């Protein structure tokens, strides 16, 4: 393992905030809401739950961005730790809508989160007039408080109605989908460039239905910041992971990085550069009911564009000249 800088205690808290914020909302704020129902402060959770149900459809109708949340200084500390950067290869015109493929998933998707859900790397200045949305599991938006936190950062539901809404209301919307999904997270290990994409064609069909431009992206370094323990498909642990996914929608990954002390293992990611390269948009015609042949055609063009994007930048960002993307 290369020599890495030791994070400050403040940086460590910021780095752990991303995964731990969800745990806090699950195990602290949720019970607190219930507890308040039985105290003199009961009107507060009652009013929130009324708002919660009245606002039920908002996550599938464009969400609710908060510039204040996206500009929290915490995200700048997160960016500086690795560091995380974004590279634009072509301008994105605000006159169009875009469906962006995010590759690879990695363990916690630090690159996509920092670049598209915050202003730490200056997304709005790099792509003026473009409103980014990063899609995630739909059931997160059914959880009180969690939904508010996600929507404030521009995260949207990966459901078809939510994506259709964003691509059909106005222009300048950029919807990012981690195409490989949770299955790709389970095979995220350093020095690999295997993407689950060969049979993932739904995002291409959706782009065709709306005439949205497809934007390939690749985040170099995303799979390098954590080690993961992989299990054989016949093992009981792999079966447990599969069962866990069928219940919760994502895999229970066993991963580790660095600890708080030099040379120790822990949950902190390794401080290695993460660079998201945003490729040239691929214009698509608007076809309400695209045939399988048309979908296959543009899916192949997308994969070819992604390969070219990877090949053009791989040696600059830590990959060997002979390394290739592998689609499964």
From TrEMBL:
Keywords: Acyltransferase, Endoplasmic reticulum, Lipid biosynthesis, Lipid metabolism, Membrane, Transferase, Transmembrane, Transmembrane helix
Gene Ontology, cellular component aspect: endoplasmic reticulum membrane
Record's bilayer topology term: Multi-pass membrane protein
Primary subcellular site in the record, as a coarse category: endoplasmic reticulum
Gene Ontology biological-process entries: lipid metabolic process
Ranges in a coiled coil: none
Lyase listed as a keyword: no
Transmembrane segment boundaries: 35-54
InterPro entries hit by this protein: DAGAT
Keyword Transmembrane: yes
Cellular localization per UniProt: Endoplasmic reticulum membrane
E.C. numbers: 2.3.1.-
Signal sequence, renumbered to the chain: none
A GO MF label: long-chain-alcohol O-fatty-acyltransferase activity
Domain of life of the organism encoding this protein: Eukaryota
Main enzyme class: transferase
Pfam families: DAGAT (PF03982)
Family (UniProt): Belongs to the diacylglycerol acyltransferase family.
Protein name per the record: Acyltransferase
Gene: AWAT1
